[in-house]
Amino acid sequence: MEIGSGPSNASSRFLASLGKVHGVDVTPELRANDALESGEVSDGVSIPFPDASFDACVSNYVLEHVEKPEEQLREIFRVSKPGGAYLVRTPNLVHYVALIAAATPHWFHELVANRARDMAAGSHLPYPTMYRMNTPRAVRRIADAVGFDVETLRMVEKEPSYGMVARPVFLGLMAYERLVNSTDRLAFARANLFVVLRKPAAST
Questions:
Q1: Which of 52, 62, 84, 173 makes an SS bond possible with 80, Cβ 3.0 to 4.6 Å?
Q2: CB-CB contact of 57 with 76 (8 Å)
Q3: 43-198 has which fold?
Q4: Residues 98/92, Cβ–Cβ less than 8 Å
């Protein structure tokens, strides 16, 4: 299952190359996703599928938008098969992009986010961000409360997409990327959390 699958996109198509993918999203846009076997509109918490339905659940840049992550994670635990995995990529709250986003109003994100990434006109505007489960500590705390085991938690910094607005900005942010990737002591300041949560095999 892909949580926050949205309309057709590269992530959904990649997942579909691995097996059948069912989607859930807060908007009916997912009905236009050609990679999904089925798609269900959700309230952002409940997941309208039976218990123990999925071998794996995936969310790609979705968790930062979830207002009630513990409640949603309980639903993901419920629909996961025993031994199933929940795989997440989400921004790190202490990275400069997330810090700016958390400190500024949503109208500012709509004004500058797509422009900073040099996205095409007509691209989807950014969704509101909450950052309720976007630090390693928050991931471990909420996963433990729900019953998931934290199998993998990696901090990853990649090329600075928000620097595409201008060459000097890009070069400055590339210097940041080189710095935080130079030593694991600075891993806390990297852009993204890559997380694998595992439902214990004995769980029901």
A1: 84
A2: yes
A3: Rossmann fold (3.40.50)
A4: yes
